[in-house]
Amino acid sequence: MEKILTIDIGNTNIATCLWDGDKMNRLKSFQTDLNASFEALKDSFLSVLMSYEDNKKTELIAGSVISCVVPSIAETAKEALSSVTGHTPVMVSHELDLGINFDLYDKKSLGADRIVDVVGAVQLYKAPVIVCDLGTCTTISAVDSNKNFIGGMICPGVQTSLNALHSRVPHLPEITAAQTDTLIGQDTSSALLSGAVVGTASMLAEITDRLCKAPEMKGASLILTGGNAPFVFPWIGEKEKAYHEPDLIMKGLREIYTNFC
């Protein structure tokens, strides 16, 4: 089976997966450097690939695909990965024909991560879908029953919100996002955590309810992904058509490479 490399370059980390057919092997992640050089990225990609015991030969990789939301290193990352694998990677953008109509949105401002998320979600759960990616930002993306990307929202992420409160109100404690069983906090720390986590879940549930009132969004699946999704998902009230997909972006990237490139 051919091996495919999928790369997610986010604002905080760069995640990598090696696909051997349908089998996904999550490789090491490394921190995003907004000013990374060609050599630094090349060394990082090579180190990640060589750390995987079943992949000591980079020439066995048939191809690669990158989602990048950091414009300052997008082209450098493409060149660095090409140097490592010997193949020019596919860069996800609105210019690719991915089976979803993005014409209703300002395509030039649409992040690659949101494009990949909805492609993966439609493949896994069919349209209509609402995808919530809970990372540095909480992004909400909606695709209707006709596979039109109808738009979305961009909100502060769970950890970003906690960081902002501590930064703007220094006497409030510094809190790390985590799972909570508490709806109402009994002290400042637990109140901050429940506010960020349960508040995000409540926001997503209400937005989903409102979106699903439109005929073309009726019965939409709600998909949560991203680093903060495990904390928020337990607080989503109606779970009949709600799903947690931790590897959605990697599955979406593989779908793009396999079926659209």
Characteristic terms for this protein:
about 260 residues, alpha/beta, Nucleotidyltransferase, domain 5, 2 domains, 11 strands
Account of the protein in words:
Strand 2 and strand 3 (23-26) form a beta hairpin. The chain has helices at 38-50, 71-85, 112-125, 158-168, 188-211, 229-232, 248-260; strands at residues 3-9, 13-20, 23-26, 30-31, 61-68, 90-91, 129-134, 137-143, 149-156, 221-225, 242-244. The mean pLDDT is 93. Helix 1 (38-50) packs across helix 2. 36% of the residues lie in helices and 23% in strands. The strands form 2 sheets. Strands 1, 2, 3, 4, 5 and 6 form a 6-stranded mixed beta sheet that branches. The protein has a 5-stranded mixed beta sheet with strand order 9-8-7-10-11. The protein folds into 2 domains: 3-91, Nucleotidyltransferase, domain 5, CATH 3.30.420; 107-253, Nucleotidyltransferase, domain 5 (2-Layer Sandwich), CATH 3.30.420.40. 41% of the residues are buried. With 261 residues, it is α/β, with parallel strands linked by helices.
Integer count of domains: 2
The H-level CATH homologous superfamily of the largest domain, spelled out, is ATPase, nucleotide binding domain
Separation of termini? 17 Å
Largest sheet: 6 strands, mixed
SS content category: alpha/beta
Morphology:
globular
Beta-strand percentage? Answer: 15-25%
CATH class of the largest domain: Alpha Beta
Contiguous uncertain segments of 5+ residues: none
SSE ordering: EEEEHEHEHEEEHHEHEH
CATH architecture level-2 label of the largest domain: 2-Layer Sandwich
> What integer value in Å does the Rg equal?
19 Å
Work out the helicity level: 25-40%
- Give me the oligomer status: single chain
Individual helix count: 7
At the fold tier of CATH, the topology name of the largest domain is Nucleotidyltransferase, domain 5
Number of strands: 11
What value does the average pLDDT take? 93
